[in-house]
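Model: You mentioned two targets. I'll fold them one after the other.
Researcher: Yes, keep them separate.
Model: Target one:
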Amino acid sequence: MKVAVVGATGLVGGEMIKVLEERNFPVDGIIPVASQKSAGKNIFFRGQEYQVADIQEAINMKPALALFSAGGSVSIQWAPGYAKAGITVIDNSSAWRMDKTKKLVVPEINAAVLTKEDKIIANPNCSTIQMVIALNLLHKKYKLKRVIVSTYQSVTGTGKKAVDQLMSERKGLPGEKAYPYPIDLNIIPHIDVFLDNGYTREEMKMVNETKKIMGDDSIAVTATTVRVPVMGGHSESVNAEFEKEFEMADVHELLCASPGVKVVDDIKNLRYPMPLEAYGKDEVLVGRVRRDETQPRTLNMWIVADNLRKGAATNAVQIGEYLLSKNLL
């Protein structure tokens, strides 16, 4: 069995290849796919060298699975062709997430919705993934009523151009800009494009994707997403109101039992989640968990995860692992 990685030379694509290798994903080899700019480049996987293929050529090589991370326009143009050829696509762009005919999957929460007929599967937005992972078991027990989230998102979420901008600014060098303003020594309350309602598309992704993943349209979500001069992970301040009352000891127990969550919450010893600690890891780190003292049945928490890992590459590979385990490929 072969796996194609479409967008293999990008930040997320490179991480997908790394995660496939780290998790010993059972494949005979990979098919790295990239644009014409990367023609002739080689990618290493398990000590072997693989030449970058073009996107049509990869279909002809008949992979069982294709991990897409090449942007929405590429996914819209090519994912249906891969699916028609019998290749299962796990797509990291926003192209299919809110399509009613496509599943939006975080394996720890809703992998069971997948069937053999699902040939295009959507990987959620990085910020949404880490939030719903942390809230999932709490929602099952106490039922989420409203979530207010403010994000502090790494430049790696924008891509290599943004990383280069930050590092050039840090060194005082001129360079290409990914953002309309400096990002070093600054924060930018603007991720993706602004919509007619005054929110950005990133903010509305968190609103709509949370409902779809949780399978509950009644959850009220409001978001403010912010870009910060950090590499290695996204952070979120989350205020969650529930329908049912809770005890803090039970909340802590549920978080500790949540698949994919690592509780880092020891304020006496100044232990709380930070991007530096999340970098390169697959766990969603949760800390600063406390009751909101201004209203009943409400929690505050701080959630951090590596956006290139669980927020993108690892989640996609875990979907692939689930498909294999259930003979759905």
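Model: Target two:
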Amino acid sequence: MSEVVPGTYDIRLNALADATGAGDYFAVIFANSLTHTRYQAFVGDGIKSFELLRAWSVDVTNYDASYVPEYVSVGVEASPYFGAGIDGAKYFGTDQNGLALGRDKLIGFRREAAATNNLLHSRDLGNAAWSTKTNITAAKTATGLDGIANTATTLTATAADAIILQPISLASAARCASAYVKRRTGTGTISFTQDGGTWTDITAQINSSTWSRVQITSTLANPSVGFKGGTLGDEIDVDCVQNEAGAVATSPIVTTTAAVTRNADLLTYQTASNIDFAVGTLYGEIQTPINSLTRYLVIVGTGYSGIAGASLVTWRASDSTTIAQQVGLSDVTTAKRKRVVSWGPAGLSSTGDGLAPLTVAFDGSFGDGATINIGSNTNGYIGPVAIYNYQMTDAQLQEVTK
């Protein structure tokens, strides 16, 4: 036996063996106190020389290596040890103030379509890209949305009608301008624009203690986005100013010297072993922003089978042949709402908010293809989503959506 490095050894053994007796082989076994064994065996036909596996010992627990305690996972109650709270993964059950996160804060998977912020220097309004500055100063001295000092911009009116603008060359389209704004000093009127001349009063939407997101939507070419302060000395902090195609502002896309595109979010599962096209129930919860026109909660396969919104208060189940459309549901822009569909021998049913289901004939296959798409091209919050391998009764469909 020779030590290679401290704690690691090469072990060699020469042995003489014959084939007499009841057995025709023998084994050399090394066992430690933790019952791990390493062995070699050979037929007894003379002298054999062999090398056993290299043996080593390492103290990984700050205990005597002869006693290594059983591993105990931190933050997980029982085996199997995976999921939130596994050792080595940081997660939080409280907010930045140490307060417990309520279920109303756990709003699910945020799914967004692809979007491009065409404004440059979205956090630094002192940059030359904000080319029109009249009666106003802009300094990147404010603490931003991320809580980091000097990442957002303070705008100060040096006279009445203080204006800052950034013009953009773009073809005509439905566009949304947005920004996070917080009042620093003063009480005068604050306005926002995306055409450089039509001003929207946002005074009532902002305050001096928290960031408020303001947005305006219109169809136009060559937008010019900016702010106007009506009173000398008034100051506002501004962060993450955005101009993007569409009818609703998406999550912040930070820019500097060039426009930035954020790819669409994608969450899919395979249909194999996850859904039975012949019988089942599909449940989900969804909330979408105001003016979000497309609401696909779940799409199953290559067609349009799944749960989809025909309006903010009308939802439907489709099996690609027939549609079960439930009307009179709650508006999904004000809170997360529960929606469910079922299919099978009892037909194709759709409901939500605890209403009696609407049922139509079922064509025999709820979807096709290999993919379950959560959210499809929706902008909004989705989850939880559940798929059951049986068709719920009408009473059960009402109960789960209350």
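Researcher: Noted. Anything on target two?
Model: The longest helix spans residues 394-400.
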